Every structure is written in C-alpha cells, then in structure tokens.
Amino acid sequence: MTSDDEYGRDAASKASPDVVKFPQSRVRPPGGSTPFRDLGNSKLANTLGALKEQTTGHWCSSCKGIWFGTLLETECPVCGNRNG
Predict the structure, then answer these.
(1) pTM of the complete model
(2) Vertex 61, ends 23 and 45: CA angle to 5°?
C-alpha cells in the first residue's frame, strides 16, 4: 500500500520531474484574447452544403484567420495559401 501525500494523492500517481506536461488545450495562446478573423467556408464545403458543425477550422498564416472546410482541404479560400 502506498502512503498519501498532503493533497491526498498516492505516491505512484505523482508525475516525475522528467515528464514534460502536454500543453493545455484550454489555455489561450499569446494574442488569443482578440477574436479570430473568420475567412468563411471553402468552395468544396459550400458545394457539399456542409453545416458549420460539420466543417474543420484551418489556420491561414497569410490572412491571420481561420477558414472552414472539409478535413483534408489545404488551400485558403481567400488567398490560396497552402502552407497553414
């Protein structure tokens, strides 16, 4: 049986100092306090009639915004950037 520490965790569940924690998904990145620029939907998403909930957001570094399309699309509908 393991002994509990002052917070009620057992010794086996403590993280090793060698373990690097994965970045938290709920933490805003620098500059994340401002709303993102919505670049709209891709041509394919519009052709398929995909709902906003059925599309995936893709970042465009040239436009500094997010466009929405199908999972495997890579080209920004605004500027044509294919490099994220």
Answers:
(1) 0.60
(2) 95
